[in-house]
């Protein structure tokens, strides 16, 4: 009978929203920020841009890891951009930029693309894909835009909005997986794991009341 080994997931992102999404889905990731300069990638297709950045982030973190022999380590890199009016919109450069975007976006729709790159460190195998979700923005007032931008939240996220924070009140509806808009699609992660002969249940953990300890629920066969 083959032995089982612990399965570790490393999130190559500083995004607290991505980490919370994983935790809510039963996965407790380690976090290691990639430090990738996102300006180095230039392309006219939003899908290509977010996937290439996700790939670079995952690869950068893999290059800094020294996995233990008795542990199987995976790295997930993600990146999100908004495609709107033929433009690719990442994070706003400043409050004025965020305000201009919202004046254009209100009452209209865009497509949020999130690239995912999953790498099995030991074997070097990888699986990658892009998840896309249509976002319909509310027709909000100038005062609401000003108040939202003043919070600083739009400056920290692709497209200048969230659905899991203050910006959620300004999104009328979406067509697709909400996790894509947050920045990580759990259904897509499940499929990518399957391409590496793994299951999402292999990553599940059980957190004791109060968060005192984490007990692995799933192990992967070596």
TrEMBL record:
Catalytic residues in the record: 79
SUPFAM superfamilies in the record: ITPase-like
Class in the EC hierarchy, top level: hydrolase
EC number(s) from the headed UniProt entry: 3.6.1.9
CDD domains associated with the record: Maf (cd00555)
Keyword Hydrolase: yes
Record keywords, A-Z: Cytoplasm, Hydrolase, Nucleotide metabolism
Reactions listed under catalytic activity: a ribonucleoside 5'-triphosphate + H2O = a ribonucleoside 5'-phosphate + diphosphate + H(+); a 2'-deoxyribonucleoside 5'-triphosphate + H2O = a 2'-deoxyribonucleoside 5'-phosphate + diphosphate + H(+)
Organism domain of life: Bacteria
Cofactor: a divalent metal cation
InterPro entries on file: ITPase-like_fam, Maf-like
Location in or out of the cell: Cytoplasm
A Pfam family of this chain: Maf
Function (record text): Nucleoside triphosphate pyrophosphatase. May have a dual role in cell division arrest and in preventing the incorporation of modified nucleotides into cellular nucleic acids.
Entries under HAMAP family matching the protein: Maf (MF_00528)
Family the UniProt entry places it in: Belongs to the Maf family.
Protein name: Nucleoside triphosphate pyrophosphatase
Organism of derivation: Micromonospora tarensis
Gene from which this protein is expressed: maf
